[in-house]
Structures
1.
Amino acid sequence: MSTRRQRQVAELVHRELSLLLLHDVRDPRLEGVTITEVRVTPDLLLARIFYTLLDDDASVAGSQSGLERAGGFLRSQLAARVKLRLVPELEFMHDASAAYGQHIDELLDQIGRDDATQAAQAPDDQDTQEEPRT
């Protein structure tokens, strides 16, 4: 359970890091990186940054190393942009929930197509199997 202050700092870090990644970071490994969530520890000294990749072909390992390499730059730019006594350390973690959600959507679509195919075939089977009543 997070406090109001934790949520405020997390939202601030989320907004500013998103802008920094969009406008100021030049590393090609970070193209298509989107921050999905920021969680700040109760002491406000560590921010866990969850990110996902927009491009399916992008390498998670390459993006992770690019974020870790840019971590110092991002933290210093964050310190210049926000009014916090201490800027939290940044820890980057890949968020696989978007890919997992997409996989679930694909499975549900496949089930829907299979049901539609079975429904389309079912009336034909019933018509040929019925015997006339006398």
Note: The longest strand covers residues 33-40.
2.
Amino acid sequence: MDFLSKMAEWGLTPTPKQLEQFHRYYFFLIEKNQVMNLTAITEESEVYTKHFLDSLSIFKAGVLSEQTLLDVGSGAGFPSIPLKIMFPGLRVTIVDALQKRITFLSELLSLLEISDVELVHGRIEEFERKNHFDIVSARAIAKLPMLCEFCLPFVKKGGLFISMKSIHYEEELRQSHQALSKLRGRLKDTISISLEAELTNILLVFEKTENSSPIYPRSFALMKKKPL
């Protein structure tokens, strides 16, 4: 199933401008990937499915309008930039530890004529806006217990942490019970996303029940040494 067909199935109707932005995004990604390690997926239809559609699937966790969205470990801009293209009212912040990725994202946003995304160079453990965002998103950048500590401290009470995982998520979720308890999160929903015939991903949607303690997230070294 192609990009537009899947979008229609999901009830999304991109404008000509939005389709042009995705088109520019793809070719800029491939151009820069020749000198930067941004993605192992380069074939056009696969980028549209495994990056763009996968990113957009987050909208299935709830209505997206003008929420604040923090993207942790965005890499080449996934999932936040495709979401920003389709839902331009989102107020997006991206934190990345590598300056070259921040530079790539800055150039990409200029190319896409998007001016209201905040790019922050630094480690997420050092980011100061705790208990602040409506939504915090992360793709499969770490195992779920560590990912919870990376992300949940920045979700405000009543907000959502959305973790994008493969269908083999159950053991990671089981290992995360203590982290969720300490960080004040609870599993709200598990959403299965069929991207194509033999590719299904999972959205784990966690709700923030109370503000996290200011001691979290701890340093990365301490997270590895003493995981929650």
Note: The longest helix spans residues 16-33.
3.
Amino acid sequence: MSVWAVAGVVACEPKQAATPGPVFGGEAHAADARPLPSNMNESILNGPCSPAAPAGETLLIDDFEDGDNRPFKEFQREGYWYSASDTTPGEMSPKPNTFAAEPLPDAESTPQNRLAAHLVASGYSDWGVVWGTSLRWVDAGVKCPFNGSKFAGVKFRAKGTGRVRVNFGIPETIPKEYDGVSVERCYDTHSRVVLLTPEWETYEVPWAELQQWGWGTQARFDATRILSLQFAVDGKNLPVDLWIDDITFLPTSDAASSAALNVQQ
């Protein structure tokens, strides 16, 4: 399993710098003749993953009921859940480089819904913590970014405390050692902020509402080349205690409902 979030964030950690305004995911679909970003090379255009892999078709990413550390097993889709933190003093569960679903409280558990991801962290004062999964299309030894072009975003249920940023990594924002093409100011992934509540709520994060943080090399979001899905909390927003369940892709027909409860800029 390649857990790029653990070593890669340190190896390619960006320097905070002033940048132009944020890059919005809605620009990803506009084709023009602009040059390639400075942090990528042309190998992404003519390698084994060009053109993009076949589009995924299964909506379910994970409901955690199988209890393992992999998303729901779609044909030719591969991924592994993981956790990571910065190196400042702190505590998190699951521990860094691990992941395990937990039983729901008795009052919430049903025969059809027994397990969920329970994620807790406090103390870290730098970039904070992330929980997430890698996403790949695999066939005969070839691995390519996952093609999510048949979907409009992601949907999930969550409850807890804290401010969570839902991130999607694409090759331009991920360094080469983790299947990306970025060589500088890595990990400025496309994301959306979610404000949690103590009760279970359903959240939608459409592709069209994603934007980069603003400190890294700018890139357009491309749903045909997704490398990761993460739930991240930076140090200034800790502590956090959240439950996440029933993560699915958002059908294109549901995109109009993007103003889901408590999803804010």
Note: Helices lie at 4-11, 43-46.
4.
Amino acid sequence: MADRPLLLNHVEMVYRPGEGEHARAFFETMGFTVTKSMAWLRIRINPEGNGVDNVMFANEATPAQQNFDAAFEHALASDSRLAETMDRQRKVGREWPYYNFHFGASIPTHGDWERRVERLQEASESHPLLGDRVELVVFEADTPRALTLHSQAFVFTDILTTNAPFSHGLQFELQFTPVPAAQANAPRRVGAMKSANPFPDMATLV
């Protein structure tokens, strides 16, 4: 029997109490396949995959995390310094989303990438479950502050989180990587990514 390749098996996150359908709608709008597996949503990045590897899971936050979230929201409402620093961190994160914790998915064609981005943009404006709950920051190679030659859509939502407060939310990335025709069948290499613009001075991102 051939050895299985070493793969990223899964990542897991949580959604707000009662927002399982919001989470399902979010992932389906991004173009992923969602099924229910016991208490979890199983999100398949590649619908033709084995459903075990290259997947994400989401479940409802535990009461312990809900208590933590409520305590954080209380502190946020009463501590102006905390509120200011969080607002600043959010603004820096939108301006330079490369430096945030996030999950990234590689989209096979630019046309597919564009269709997914359009669906998300429409959903952020008018979807009954996702309206005002999804935000996009989109970069092409000629976009100011673009650091790579990829097509990148950074997607922010407060429907999901890891162990952070829900108001901090979670970030995803849909990425298309252009490959010259001469290299279409060559394996992807670490270091092949080029910078389109200068990297920022990290000391300024305060």
Note: Residues 10-178 form a domain with the 2,3-Dihydroxybiphenyl 1,2-Dioxygenase; domain 1 fold (CATH 3.10.180.10).
